[in-house]
Write a structure and sequence with these properties.
The chain is an alpha/beta fold. The protein has five helices and five strands, in the order βββαβαααβα. Helix 1 packs parallel to helix 4.
Length: about 160
């Protein structure tokens, strides 16, 4: 199965304001029919980077069997972690940056790695706010969630 996972995050007053994520999954079945699933949630106090990660995580956690997944995001934070080799370095250096500082959002990076395990994954960066229909939809979902009611608590567990 080939799946396209589109994702975006938003935070008001970043860092540490309300935020949200939006995720859209696309799957074309063997008969050529497009199946679309959308996800979003808002949080009381978070950061843009955490919301960027949560969008991708939510998409992966919605998949019920191994897939070939293209992650399409306007977040260099997410795409460069894999495409520029940051993740390999972080893992090799026990979750420390090149500057020997702790990697931020380790709880979510670990959750993402776990969610990705059964899948073949590629990460594609797209320019944000540039008219890409699915990226614009994810942005609308993320900002609506950030501005919505019943915001969740972003429970951060920075255990390495």
């Amino acid at each position: 199965m080939k799946v396209k996972l589109y994702s975006d995050g938003s935070a008001r007053g970043n860092p540490n304001g309300p935020g949200g994520y939006g995720c859209v999954l696309h799957y074309v079945d063997p008969a050529g029919k497009l199946h679309v699933r959308e996800f979003s949630a808002g949080y009381k106090l978070t950061t843009n980077n955490r919301m960027e990660l949560m969008g991708v995580i939510t998409g992966f956690e919605a998949l019920t069997k191994p897939c070939e997944v293209e992650v399409i995001s306007d977040s260099k934070y997410v795409t460069d972690a894999f495409n520029a080799g940051w993740m390999d370095s972080w893992l090799k250096n026990n979750w420390k940056t090149a500057g020997k500082k702790p990697v931020k959002n380790v709880d979510l990076w670990k959750r993402l790695l776990d969610a990705m395990k059964p899948h073949q994954v590629t990460f594609i960066w797209v320019k944000g706010h540039a008219g890409h229909p699915e990226n614009e939809r994810c942005d609308a979902l993320a900002t609506a969630a950030a501005d919505g009611d019943n915001l969740l608590d972003d429970v951060i567990s920075e255990v390495v």
